[in-house]
Specification:
The complex is a heterodimer of chains A (125) and B (871). Chain A has 125 residues and is α+β, with helices and mostly antiparallel strands. Helix content of chain A is 53%, strand content 13%. Chain A has a 3-stranded antiparallel beta sheet with strand order 1-3-2. In chain A, strand 2 and strand 3 form a beta hairpin. Chain A is globular and about 55 Å long. Chain B has 5 domains: 52 residues; 195 residues, no CATH class; 186 residues, no CATH class; 179 residues, no CATH class; 193 residues, no CATH class. Helix content of chain B is 52%, strand content 15%. Chain B contains 26 helices and 21 strands. In chain B, helix 12 runs parallel beside helix 22 and helix 17 crosses helix 24. The relative contact order of chain B is 0.10. The chains are: A alpha+beta (125), B alpha+beta (871). Chains A and B meet through helix 2, helix 3 and strand 3 of A and helix 1 and helix 3 of B.
Amino acid sequence: MAKNPDTQRLDLLQGTLDMLILRTLQWGPEHGHGIGQAIRAQSDDLLKVETGSLYPALHRLVKRGWLKWEWDLSEANQRAKYYRLTAAGKAQLSHEQDRWSQLVDAIGRIMNPARVAAGNPGNKD
Amino acid sequence: MGPHDDDLDEEIRGHLAINIKQRIERGEDPSSARLAALKEFGNVPLTRDSIRSVWRPRWFDAAEALVRDIRFGFRALSRAKGLTATVVVTLALGIGANAAIFSVVRGVLLRPLVNRDEDRLIYIRQIGPGIGVENMNFSVPEVKDLRSRVKSVGAFGEFSTVDFAMIGLSGEPRMVKAGVVDGRFFEVMGLRPVLGRLLTPNDDGPKAAGAAILTYRFWSTALNSDTSVIGKQIRLGPSPATVVGVLEPSVPYPVDTEIIANIVTSPHHLGATMETDRGHRMTELFGRLAPGATIEGARAELAAVHAATVSENPKYYSSQAHVQLTIARLRDQIAAPARTILLVLLAAAAVVFIIACSNVANLILARAVRREGELAVRAALGAGRGALRRTLLAESLVLCGAGAVLGIALARPFVALAAQFAARFSVRALEVTVDPGVLWVGSALAMAAAVLLAYVPRLPSAHAPAGLGLANGSVRITPGTNRRLRVFATTQIAFSFVLLVGAAMLLTTLVTLQTANTGYDMRKVLAFDIPPAATGVFSPNMGDFLQQATLRVGQLPGVDGAAVGSFVPWRDTGQASITLRFTVDGYTRADGEEDPRARIRFAGPRFFNVLGIKLVAGRDFADDDRQGRELVTIVSQSVAQRLFPNGEAVNGHLRVIGSTPRRVIGVVADLDDEHVERQPAMTVYLPVRQGGFAGRLFVRAAGNPYTLVPTVTRIVRDLAVDQPVERAATLEDIRADVLSPERLNAFVFSGFAGIALLIAVVGVAGVLAFSASARTREFGIRLAVGSAPRHILAGVLAEGMWIAGIGIAAGAAGGFVLVRVASKFFGAVPLPGALPVIGAMAVLAGAAVIASLMPAARAARVDVLQALRSE
């Protein structure tokens, strides 16, 4: 376990998983496996979500009313649960996106004061 | 709420299927793809579990963990049986005792009466504070005045106590305590009949037919709730009466009577004296507040009206007596005698509870310290502070819960015991049962204690280096812990000391009373009541009847003598006691001095001889001292010494105010037949056959007095068929009976003190055992370098004595302050004498020595090698 390419992988910041899930579902309904894969793929394999965290998080979001689920046939020819954003979920996503960029900005100012002074490149990335 | 278990399984299966399919598409072998997918997924049941917990409310998890911890607590405690038993029993005693006392206090002092609108019901008393009279009752003219002038009291009810010889209800003629009431009484009291009717104003007046109401207790016990009793003809003394109804169960006040009858049944009540003599006071007065009137308003109006009547009729109200009028809610009036004693007991129970709690805290604290090693290991393995605290909480919940359950189980017998005790002071105590509210409070207290106790021990920090403690799991006490333990133990000693001194005080009083010399031959003398008024024959031949009875009884085998009198010592206190003023020829009062007062007692011939009273000078009464002969009297020694020159009273002359002078023929020893605590009492004895009466027969027995009862009864009945002969008892037993409240007080209080002492001993022993066991290594080293075991023994003993000493000092100081504070609220509270204080000190010191002995001996026997190796 210790000596594989995964050592490069980053630990998720506390509380960011919910935001990533909401963001992933922005493009349409997806089942749990697909969500995990999408996060991994879009982060260029830097983020890997364990199923042990992913599924409780999905259910938590459903419980809060930000997601809904429906059963459908998956590519494996078996019933799978597809999660979909609700209106409240969409609102929550944009709220979390704002908060996230503020946080990144604030942390960036502290970690790289020089660059910030030069013209805040953080937002241009 | 939330998905079903099958639903979750299907979701997880779907996840795995997609993963496997993708792997196979990438070219993996199906079986290895399956394994890889499972491996990637991780722990399936755990995932399912954490999904489930998302859908559960937050408290559910906490509760589940607590249940687990409680089960763990049960297991852990079953391994510490001694500690568990001690804690549970200690708490149970504390809770049980409190539940009992609380139940009785609520039942006796706070519960409303059954009477309709009982909070508008008042009891009115006429008091004479100047002469120490608590309740002088009312005369008929006084009641008439109040009735016509007072507006704030809507109605008055009159009640007076009469002893009737009742014939026709339960076999033989029997003396019954009866109430004689006016027709408004039951309306005022707000009581209903359970059978028949109650008395109304139609039953008033001299021409009404005699009517009697039975009280519920008499009807249901003596008559087995016989419904055919209504309409039965009975005789109350000389007058006939019809039973018209049965009263609902209610608190009897002022006396517990068997029947209540209308005024016409008591010839005395119809007499001119009763009707017109303002000074002839024998009526108890009840009132119901008028609509809109307050008790304060009524109090003020009654006082004003009364003051006016007093100034209009000065000759009936001695200026010295300061006669006043006072009212109280009936409920409070009934509770009054029990109030102080119950509050004192409540305080004692609370003290026991405090001691119990501090002892439990002590034991649990010591246990937590012992477990510091275990807790440190658990903290190192990742248990959070919350989890550790929860473990402790679960354990103390189990302990305190068990204590509460046992305490509640104990409450019932305790309540029965306490109610029996309180019944001496208030009839209401008889109906007291366990108050469920009290049990809730007890349980809540136990739970509060549990939560508090869980927060007493400090937790090991996961970050702090646990070092040695973790390594060998041994006990290390910080000075802080030790101090806390000692403070708890000292508190217990201090509170126990206060209780012990209280108990010792009561016990010394009791012993003094019981061993006091009364001046009577108490064991041999049997007293009977042979009430003369009962049969209604205050006839001229009563003297002959008494003389015959005495003569015949005196001749019985096994009888050393018989005599009649008017007063059974202690038993007749308060009812048959007469005090009158008298003058003595040749004695002149000093300025401002009132005429002396003396108790007046009638006595037949041989009275002093039979009762064993010493004749100091002169002679006894003889059969010839009768009407028509020279008027004579016998005085007690204090009368002779105070009022006759050189104390030589014989042949002097004495005049009871309002009668002719009498020649003193004898002087007898001073006695106090009213108080169990002997006080000087001036007494003047008059012969029965010179205008007196005698309703008491005294028999001096040679052998066992009680075997004489049937023969004596038969002989008296032979002379007068309807004559009740009752309440036979030796003077010794009468005194014991009168002393029984004192004995009960001492008993209950000693019980509390005993419990407290026991708990304190356990507490001190626990603290010492704990601190000694923690110092095992120190003792081992000291023994190794040549210290003598007895020095170590002495050291631990000294520690115990030190705790006891500080505790006693604190208790003495606290008790002194307590007495001071109590004096402010309750009037003079006596400080204990030296004997109880020294006794309590000795008992506590002895208990401390015993408590320290075991740990001390164990410390002195420490195995040097063992002690040193354990490092």
